[in-house]
Recover the amino acids of this structure.
């Protein structure tokens, strides 16, 4: 088949890129080769717009065993154990087909983790949907939730936490970011490397079908009207097949047969074989006739580009093929030798014994195009940063204002969603969804890990640098208030169309913001994912650099939750209660404005986190809750709603500004803790040592939340507003 | 005593049950692969929760044809103690060891949460360490826990004390608002006629350690261990003791 200008365009390649292919091959590619170039050079696989910027991330630290570049990053948690974790996006497929898009997102990230030799122990997700008044939102929420539940519950990995936001900017592009952490022995790490010339390449798992062809290319393009037409590029998940694959792989990893292993995710057999060869400095020869296929008559093009789910590629030691197959047979899975490692650093595809395509590995990986796309601060940035707080009308009824805030989708309880996730399977979940971070114990030790995902994309829209730094800081704060020392993070950088200079500006600013926060807070980036082209009909999403972070708790007994526990405990505010309505949920929900300049002082942030950790370790903290959306008032309300039994509070705040600023402002680096009276001098001392302000503001008491003269609400009303909002909306 | 934990393809609470039996209650435990035949030396069999065969076709419908199920049935017929939790309960109904069926939850969604249960009958091998009428907190996690049986069966279950656990409020009212999934009569767990087979939707293995939020599930395991040490030592099923 002759390659025409039209064919090149259909494959998402520019004419310059096609010229480059001609140069590399010294001839015209055939359709198979063009297809391989197109997926490997897609934004999704090549990171061509983002790669040069990602180099700015600090990636080393005392806990890091594996940084970026592998299927997942790995941290050392002591006792000979390690935790592998990573976050990935499945945004485009989830918008087109929410159930399968989200389900296969979960399936993909789970494979990334067990490929490293780790047993997945916990999953989280960060979800963004359009506003409540967008007719598609409820459908997407229902479908995505059911898809995550359907896959995660079946495979038996608890979904322990997450975050959900609603905003107009996601009306045309929802975001589904999923994160999984797995546990492994630190001396049993497996990597995606093809080495040992002549070693067999084995294909395991489900058969290859025609589904998901060009999924990676689809994920590297913007949507126009009628994006649903791309439904055939979305794959269908089979969690049962993956459960078998997981158990079989973990059984295989106990042997010494495996040289390297990689999951077949985006761009399937193509990317897995090419990336393994690239890491091993080798080549791979694949025989299309040996690949297990679901349908007759599939061409090499279709086989190489299929994104059928639940498949893995591995290189094993010569002579162990039969022993490997035997393990998979036990689990009723197919394993076939489909190729071998070769010396020529090429991907060579055979059909009927003849070469049907051959491409140098480096041209698909290290030497793939990298763009330094132009970047420009948006013209509208000044106008959204302008914010005159004096022009904001002060609420007449603070009780109603707080209730309205608690009903906002971004603050309201997410129970309607996480109730559908099995968050307890594996019997390790010590803190279930609902508190600041999930806490998962490590059996056989006294340790636990804490996990969280965070990003406030409104802050990122107003200031991508500060907003991204706040996302890192908030994630670390959520861990610290749970008693965990943050040790590493993974990111999912969701942005609009990088061919727009304004989007590239947002992207580069966000990367530098993450970098700064990582350096000051001492948390390295050990892996991540970039999702660009989240744009529909010219509208880009708010920049959304989601941060997934893991922290370590040395002694499980030293963990904390956000809920008030005992009548009479003293409520203490750590950090200064500065006035900051900029970018607040209050301004959006009550006044319909997204304005101002969110700010953070990272040195202060570091101090308050150290103070929290020390106080929790000293055993004086009864509850600790980070102050975020909705400010101190919302944080107090959330702390009252202990699932074991709600309990009220009487609080008086001292401030020199308006009550709405004090109650609903979202100045960063604030934590609400409760302690016993006798421990006040201790916490004062700890805070002083960490230069952190600390002020008693009230007491846990009664059946209502009372804040100064402004707020007096019985807990029943708070609970109804906050607890019922999501269900009310979704069922209306 | 020794527990056998049956592993079907897709079981996912097998490790949790093993952990509870072995590390929380210091009993012997072994996994039993679903293709195994010739079960020997077990005093109690647990069919754990999960999604055997992916719940494809119907929950438990394929697992009941696993080779090991013949052994489970004959073990039960001989009076051996069999505990089916969640998917294990579903498999037991499909295998005919327990009556009725577990249908899709009333609101058609998966539900994971703590529930309160009233212990209706503490004169069974699975509940003897609970007080009769006591209320316990044990979590559920299922999409198909809506127990249904024909009226005659329900009457037989109720009249013979075979409804062992019932969803209730925290103060023990088996009220409609305490029913998470639409089960008839708020049924959460039932035994067979002989009382040696229990199926329950809630997960006692998830409520056996204080750090997981409840220790109320311990009673199920303690009752089994107690029942065995009391009376069953000489009646080991599946093999002869050397007494």
């Amino acid at each position: 088949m002759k390659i025409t200008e039209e064919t090149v365009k259909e494959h998402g390649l520019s004419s310059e890129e096609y010229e480059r292919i001609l140069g590399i091959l010294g001839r015209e590619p055939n359709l198979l080769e063009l297809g391989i170039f197109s997926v490997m050079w897609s934004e999704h696989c090549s990171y061509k717009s983002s790669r040069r910027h990602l180099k700015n991330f600090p990636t080393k630290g005392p806990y890091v065993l594996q940084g970026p570049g592998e299927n997942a990053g790995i941290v050392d948690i002591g006792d000979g154990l390690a935790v592998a974790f990573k976050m990935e996006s499945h945004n485009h497929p989830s918008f087109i087909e929410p159930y399968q898009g989200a389900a296969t997102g979960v399936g993909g990230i789970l494979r990334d983790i067990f490929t490293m030799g780790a047993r997945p122990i916990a999953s989280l997700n960060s979800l963004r949907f359009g506003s409540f008044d967008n007719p598609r939102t409820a459908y997407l929420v229902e479908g995505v939730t059911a898809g995550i539940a359907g896959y995660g519950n079946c495979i038996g990995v608890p979904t322990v936490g997450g975050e959900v936001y609603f905003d107009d900017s996601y009306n045309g592009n929802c975001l589904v970011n999923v994160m999984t952490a797995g546990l492994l022995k630190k001396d049993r790490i497996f990597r995606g490397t093809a080495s040992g010339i002549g070693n067999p390449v084995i294909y395991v798992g489900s058969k290859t079908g025609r589904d998901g062809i060009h999924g990676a290319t689809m994920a590297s393009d913007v949507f126009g009207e009628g994006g649903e037409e791309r439904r055939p590029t979305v794959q269908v998940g089979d969690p049962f097949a993956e459960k078998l694959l997981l158990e079989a792989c973990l059984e295989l990893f106990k042997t010494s047969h495996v040289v390297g292993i990689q999951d077949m995710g985006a761009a399937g057999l193509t990317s897995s074989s090419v990336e393994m060869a690239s890491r091993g400095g080798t080549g791979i020869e694949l025989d299309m006739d040996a690949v297990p296929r679901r349908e007759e008559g599939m061409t090499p093009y279709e086989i190489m580009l299929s994104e059928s789910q639940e498949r893995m590629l591995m290189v094993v030691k010569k002579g162990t093929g039969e022993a490997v197959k035997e393990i998979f047979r036990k689990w009723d899975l197919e394993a076939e030798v489909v190729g071998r490692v070769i010396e020529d650093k090429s991907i060579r595809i055979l059909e009927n014994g003849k070469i049907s395509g051959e491409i140098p590995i480096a041209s698909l990986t290290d030497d793939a195009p990298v763009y330094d796309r132009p970047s420009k601060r948006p013209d509208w940035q000044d106008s959204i940063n302008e914010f005159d707080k004096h022009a904001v009308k002060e609420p007449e009824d603070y009780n109603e204002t707080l209730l309205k805030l608690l009903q906002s989708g971004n603050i309201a309880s997410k129970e309607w969603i996480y109730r559908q996730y099995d968050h307890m399977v594996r019997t390790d979940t010590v803190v279930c969804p609902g508190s600041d971070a999930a806490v998962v114990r490590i059996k056989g030790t006294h340790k636990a890990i804490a996990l969280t995902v965070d990003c406030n994309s409104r802050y990122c829209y107003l200031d991508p640098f500060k907003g991204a730094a706040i996302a890192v800081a908030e994630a670390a704060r959520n861990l610290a208030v749970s008693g965990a020392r943050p040790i590493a993070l993974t990111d999912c950088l969701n942005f609009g169309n990088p061919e727009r200079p304004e989007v590239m500006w947002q992207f580069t600013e966000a990367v530098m913001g993450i970098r700064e926060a990582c350096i000051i807070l001492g948390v390295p980036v050990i892996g991540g994912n970039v999702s660009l082209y989240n744009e529909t009909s010219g509208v880009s999403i708010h920049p959304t650099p989601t941060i997934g972070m893991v922290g370590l708790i040395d002694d499980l007994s030293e963990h904390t939750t956000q809920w008030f526990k005992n009548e009479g405990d003293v409520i203490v505010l750590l950090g200064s209660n500065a006035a900051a309505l900029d970018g607040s949920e209050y301004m959006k929900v009550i006044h319909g404005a997204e304005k101002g300049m969110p700010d953070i002082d990272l040195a202060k942030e570091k101090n308050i986190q150290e103070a929290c950790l020390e106080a929790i370790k000293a055993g004086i903290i009864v509850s600790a809750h980070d102050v975020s959306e909705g400010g101190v008032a919302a944080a107090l309300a959330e702390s009252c709603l202990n699932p074991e039994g709600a309990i009220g509070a009487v609080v008086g705040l001292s401030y020199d500004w308006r009550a709405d600023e004090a109650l609903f402002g979202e100045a960063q680096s604030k934590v609400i803790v409760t302690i016993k009276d006798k421990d006040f001098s201790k916490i004062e001392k700890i805070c002083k040592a960490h230069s952190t302000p600390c002020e008693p503001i009230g007491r846990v008491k009664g059946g209502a939340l009372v804040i100064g003269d402004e707020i007096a609400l019985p807990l029943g009303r708070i609970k109804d507003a906050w607890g019922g909002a999501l269900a009310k909306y979704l069922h209306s | 005593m020794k527990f056998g934990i049956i592993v079907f393809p897709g079981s996912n609470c097998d490790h949790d049950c093993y952990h509870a039996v072995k590390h929380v209650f210091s009993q012997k435990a072994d996994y039993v692969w679903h293709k195994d035949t010739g079960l020997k030396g077990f005093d109690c069999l647990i069919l754990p929760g999960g999604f055997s065969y992916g719940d494809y076709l119907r929950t438990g419908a394929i697992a009941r044809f696993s080779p090991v199920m013949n052994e489970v049935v004959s073990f039960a017929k001989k009076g051996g103690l069999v505990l089916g939790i969640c998917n294990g309960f579903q498999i037991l109904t499909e295998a005919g060891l327990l009556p009725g069926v577990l249908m899709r939850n009333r609101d058609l969604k998966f539900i994971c949460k703590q529930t309160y249960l009233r212990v209706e009958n503490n004169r069974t091998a699975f509940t003897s360490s609970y007080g009769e009428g006591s209320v316990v907190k044990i979590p559920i996690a299922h999409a198909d826990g809506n127990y249904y049986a024909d009226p005659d069966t329900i009457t037989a279950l109720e009249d013979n004390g075979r409804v062992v656990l019932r969803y209730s409020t925290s103060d023990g009212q088996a009220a409609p608002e305490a029913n998470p999934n639409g089960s008839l009569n708020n049924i959460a767990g039932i035994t067979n006629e002989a009382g040696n087979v229990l199926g329950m939707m809630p997960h006692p293995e998830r409520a056996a350690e204080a750090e997981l939020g409840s220790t109320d599930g311990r009673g199920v395991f303690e009752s089994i261990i107690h029942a065995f040490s009391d009376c069953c030592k000489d009646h080991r099923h599946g093999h002869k003791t050397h007494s």
Notes: The mean pLDDT of chain A is 95. The longest strand of chain A covers residues 119-129.
